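Appendix B. Chain record.
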Amino acid sequence: MKIMFISLLMMGSLMAFSLSLDIYQGFDLSEALYNAVSPFRVMEIAELVVLFFLLFLFLAESAYVVIKKKKEDK
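C-alpha cells predicted for this chain:
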C-alpha cells in the first residue's frame, strides 16, 4: 500500500510540475494538459497493451497484498 501511495504521489507531483512549467511558458491550462497526455496519443496498440498489462499487474499485486494482510489480521 505504501508503494502505491508513493507512486501516485510521485506521479501527481511530476504532473503538477510539468503543468506548472507549461503554464509558466505561456500555455493555457487546456494546452498544458494536452502536452501532458500527448505521449500516450502516439503509442501503438502493442505499446498500449503492454502499458495496461503492467498497470493491471501492479494493481492486482497491491490488492493481493491488502487482502492477504486482512486475512492475517483476523
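Further analysis of this model is presented in Appendix C.
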